[in-house]
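Problem 12. The chain below contains 94 residues. Write out its predicted structure in token notation.
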Amino acid sequence: KDNSTLLPRFNLVLVQILKQDWPQNWPTFIGDIVASSKTSESFCENNMKILKLLSEEVFDYSKDSMISAKVKTMKESLHDQFSQIFQLCEFILE
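Solution.
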């Protein structure tokens, strides 16, 4: 299979890992993904897709798949680290 079919699947797997490990066991994830986004356009495009999937999981689908304490922690972490994501958006638009 080529990257166009594998990459979306890998992204989904990564989001499932993040649902278990972030932010407790991977507190630098947002900073890591923002930093890697600045290295290439293709990384940036894919990383934005990962952030979209993560936010959908946390804000839209979480009530069915995660306990409320975990959802609360993830929402707080996204909120606390949103400035990094916003700065990435500004970087993209420059």
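Discussion. The CA atoms of residues 27 and 78 lie 11 Å apart. Students who got a different answer should revisit the alignment rule from Section 12.3.
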